[in-house]
């Protein structure tokens, strides 16, 4: 079938199927490309077909025919090794693996520039919450320890971070984290850990741990089934300390998207909730979000069952989320969490877990959970009907024939709730702004078109909801230096009409889909959720702000009031221009070359 349409001329060989999920097999591009050389292999981790396509595309790029780079598109060419590694680094060892990484990158045929030259790392010492590390003020180079200290405890009360990006100016990476930083001994002396995620490269993951922690028990919680589950087990087999736990997914098209680390230390426990898959590409040139918990101290023996709870009920909510897996293995982690003091937590946990929920259970997960939190803990604002909701995501599900079906009904009703009002009657005029990369965003990105391999909006879904695209705004992030680092982060917030204040901010794994956020069934008496998702919600009241809003940080790298919130992309969002189209991953883009001089031709 060949079609000329809104999105140009394209063909699909598979049948269009109707499904509620955001990604279905028929919508995944096959791995075959126009000009295959035959030498390339897929990634060693089981993952989506699209990711394999992106992987292979990097191995055998399709050069744009005129061979020239467009003048206005050049961030990747400007990458210089001299700009690399200037951000602070908390990795424990000068890793012999970095050289392998460089070889691997070159082997992939992508931009080899922008890799290597990791700086020497900070001296060891645990960064606890309440006392300075032993090396502080006494050991050189103390600057990096100071930076780490400030990041973890001082000038970042939100504990919200972005991942380090290769190939941007060092100043934009100050205060960002690589996975090796998170797993560094500076953050704690690891006893055991659990990694919840969607896509996992076990060999790569093990290498991200410092050598001294590589054989500590590691539990991987995933959602793979059948062949891909078997492949994951094969991959994990060589590592005797690695155990796998399959999350049950009993509802069709459900996915395990949750991205969380539980890090059990000799000194306590840390929880990390983030948006990156456990694969190298996700920690290379993308915009990803991370929330780091404080170091939670161990409760004294004989402490009450209820001890160590936070004002935000985080401990109970985390345990309740883990219990939803009904896994004996995860019960072991529930016991560990029970033994710790999580009372310093200032965020609310917001999860989704597959099921059909009724009665009081309805408000435990998804958008109704957000609705409840906003009603109970966020204040009403003057002229709140003119405060837009902004959603920003990296994939999109089928949202129905028009906005009334889900987006501007149950979903918007939840995101516009504030205070214990008896339903705002003016909800219908609350603006909704959606931020999703345009084709030009992807083309001009650091990764080029292969970045689109992590933006799996399919033509089959897109063509059914052209109405949605009128809500779209471009990805732009000059303030965080990440305009060319495509978002895999997902964020939602309520902003003032002038975009200088926000009433709340959520970072989550949840894309814009009914599978993730939930959808009413049975006339609103039941909430149905297909996938596992996890995020944290920042509310002004928990940060001692009585005004009911956070000021938005204007310059990420200046000394503004510490309680201004570091929104990771530019406000106000900029609408798509008439020529702009949303990135759709399974149609070709051959008219203009990307930053590596290549085209995108999925078959
Ligand atoms: C490409 C994906 C995630 C996630 C989930 C993805 C798909 C393709 C990237 C991704 N699914 N897919 O949870 O992070 O087709 O399912 O990054």
What would you say this structure looks like, in words?
The protein contains 14 helices and 22 strands. Helix content is 19%, strand content 16%. The strands form five sheets. Strands 11, 13, 14, 15, 17, 18, 21 and 22 form an eight-stranded mixed β-sheet that branches. A seven-stranded mixed β-sheet has the order 3-10-8-7-4-5-6, with helices on both faces. A three-stranded antiparallel β-sheet has the order 12-20-19. The chain has a domain of 262 residues: Endonuclease Chain A (Endonuclease, Chain A). The radius of gyration is 23 Å and the shape is globular. The longest helix is centred in the first third of the chain and has 12 residues. 4-hydroxy-8-nitroquinoline-3-carboxylic acid (JTA) binds next to α1. The site of 4-hydroxy-8-nitroquinoline-3-carboxylic acid (JTA) has 11 residues, from α1.
- Low-pLDDT parts are 13-21, 30-40, 67-89, 91-142
**Distinct small-molecule ligands in the complex:** 4-hydroxy-8-nitroquinoline-3-carboxylic acid
How many DSSP-defined strands? Answer: 22
Mean pLDDT over the residues:
84
Short recap of the structure:
The two termini are 13 Å apart. The protein has helices at 49-59, 97-108, 142-152, 170-173, 179-182, 202-208, 226-236, 314-323, 328-338, 366-377, 407-415, 439-443, 459-462, 514-517, and strands at residues 2-5, 8-11, 160-162, 190-196, 218-222, 242-246, 260-265, 268-274, 286-287, 289-292, 348-352, 355-358, 389-392, 432-435, 472-473, 486-487, 490-495, 501-508, 519-521, 526-529, 533-538, 550-551. The protein contains 14 helices and 22 strands.
């Amino acid at each position: 079938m060949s079609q000329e349409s809104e999105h140009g001329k394209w063909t699909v060989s598979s049948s269009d199927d109707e499904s509620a999920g955001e990604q279905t097999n028929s919508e995944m591009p096959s791995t075959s490309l126009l000009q295959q050389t035959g030498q390339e292999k897929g990634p060693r981790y089981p993952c989506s077909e699209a990711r394999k396509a992106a992987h292979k595309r990097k191995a055998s790029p399709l050069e744009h025919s005129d061979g020239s780079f467009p003048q206005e598109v050049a961030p990747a060419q400007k990458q210089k090794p001299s700009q690399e590694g200037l951000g602070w680094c908390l990795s424990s060892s000068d890793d012999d693996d970095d050289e392998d990484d460089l070889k691997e990158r070159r082997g992939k045929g992508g931009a080899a520039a922008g890799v290597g030259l990791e700086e020497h790392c900070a001296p060891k010492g645990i960064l606890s919450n309440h006392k300075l590390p032993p090396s502080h003020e006494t050991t050189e180079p103390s600057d990096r320890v100071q930076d780490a200290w400030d990041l973890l405890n001082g000038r970042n009360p939100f504990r919200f971070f972005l991942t380090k990006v290769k190939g941007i100016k060092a100043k934009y990476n100050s205060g960002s984290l690589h996975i090796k930083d998170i797993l560094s001994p500076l953050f704690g002396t690891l006893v055991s850990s659990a990694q919840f995620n969607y896509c996992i490269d076990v060999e790569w993951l093990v290498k991200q741990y410092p050598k001294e922690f590589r054989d500590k028990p590691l539990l991987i919680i995933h959602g793979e089934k059948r062949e891909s589950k078997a492949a994951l087990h094969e991959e994990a087999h060589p590592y005797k300390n690695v155990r796998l736990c399959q999350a049950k997914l009993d509802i069709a098209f459900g996915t395990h998207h949750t991205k969380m680390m539980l890090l059990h230390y000799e000194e306590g426990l840390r929880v990390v909730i983030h948006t990156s898959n456990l694969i190298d590409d996700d920690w290379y040139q993308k915009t990803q979000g991370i929330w780091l918990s404080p170091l939670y101290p161990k409760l004294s023996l004989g402490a009450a069952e209820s001890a160590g709870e936070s004002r935000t009920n985080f401990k109970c909510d985390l345990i309740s989320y883990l219990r939803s897996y009904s896994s004996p293995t995860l019960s072991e982690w529930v016991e560990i969490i029970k033994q710790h003091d999580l009372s310093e937590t200032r965020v609310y946990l917001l999860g989704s877990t597959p099921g059909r929920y009724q009665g009081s259970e309805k408000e435990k997960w998804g958008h109704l959970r957000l609705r409840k939190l906003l009603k109970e803990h966020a204040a009403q604002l003057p002229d709140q009907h003119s405060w837009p909701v902004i959603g920003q995501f990296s994939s999109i599900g089928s949202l129905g024939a028009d906005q009334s079906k889900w987006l501007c009904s149950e979903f918007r009703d939840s995101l516009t709730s504030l205070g214990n009002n008896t339903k705002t009657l003016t909800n219908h005029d609350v603006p909704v702004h959606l931020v999703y990369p345009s084709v030009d965003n992807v083309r001009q990105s650091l990764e080029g078109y292969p970045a689109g391999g992590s933006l799996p909006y399919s033509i089959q879904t897109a063509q059914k909801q052209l109405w949605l695209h009128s809500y779209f705004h471009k990805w732009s992030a000059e303030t965080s230096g990440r305009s060319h680092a495509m978002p895999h982060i997902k964020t939602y917030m309520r902003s003032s009409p002038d975009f200088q204040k926000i009433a709340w901010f959520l970072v989550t794994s949840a894309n814009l889909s009914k599978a993730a956020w939930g959808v009413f069934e049975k006339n609103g008496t039941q909430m149905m959720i297909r996938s596992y998702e996890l995020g944290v919600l920042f509310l002004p009241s928990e940060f001692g702000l009585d005004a009911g809003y956070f000021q938005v940080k204007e310059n990420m790298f200046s000394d503004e009031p510490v309680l201004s919130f570091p929104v990771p992309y530019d406000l106000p969002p900029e609408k798509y221009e008439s020529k702009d189209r949303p990135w759709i991953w399974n149609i070709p883009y051959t008219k203009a070359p990307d930053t590596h001089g290549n085209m995108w031709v999925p078959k």
